[in-house]
Amino acid sequence: MTQTAYQTEQRQLRAKMAELLTQQRDQDALRIENAADPFDQIQASVERDLLVGLLNRDARLRDDLRRAFELMENGSYGRCEDCEGIIAAARLKAIPWARCCVRCQELRDREVNEADVFPYAA
Description:
Structural class: mainly alpha
Largest sheet: none
């Protein structure tokens, strides 16, 4: 990886982290309030579930960004966590916080999707 590409990805990581830190989700929607109408209760529940999902996604992304910064500091940035191969420059340009090469990420995604479809298969 060239020094210019490395610096570009570092700037992208910093920008994404700044975006996450300035973006505060309204957590008031997490409060459970009683509603007389069952449809209002369902709507509030769906909105809470959606907000929890977004908060979890943001937390995972913050962790991925922090991990990418750590890897940059120790010189391991751009290596796949699973196969230890080099992550393609195009992938890092698109997703600077990527932890895996495309092949290993596809395997991870397949495992997650199969667990969702077949949760009790072992």
